Amino acid sequence: KNISGLTLWLILWLVVVKPGRVAACPRLCVCYPSPMTVSCQSQNLSVVPSDVPYDSQRVFLQNNRITELRADSFGFETQVLWLYGNNITWIEAGAFSNLRVLEELDLGDNPSLRHLEGGAFRGLEKLQSLHMHRCKLATLPHDLFHKLYSLQFLYLQDNQLHFLQDDLFSDLVNLTHLFLHGNRIRALSENVFRGLVNLDRLLLHDNRIRQVHRKSFRDLGRLTILYLFNNSLAELPGQTMRDVQDIQFLRLNGNPWSCGCEAQPLWEWFRKSRISSSEVVCTSPSQRRGQDLRFLRELDFALCPVPDPGSMAGTTTTTFSTKTRWWFSKNKPASSSKSLYQKNSETVKTFPFTAPKAQSPAKTAIESVPAKYEMSEDEAALPKLDPEEYWANYGNEDASIRCFELECPPGFDESAFYSSSTLTRVPSFLHLLTLSVVAISLHLVFG
Question: Which family does the record assign (predicted)?
Answer without folding.
Answer: Belongs to the Nogo receptor family.
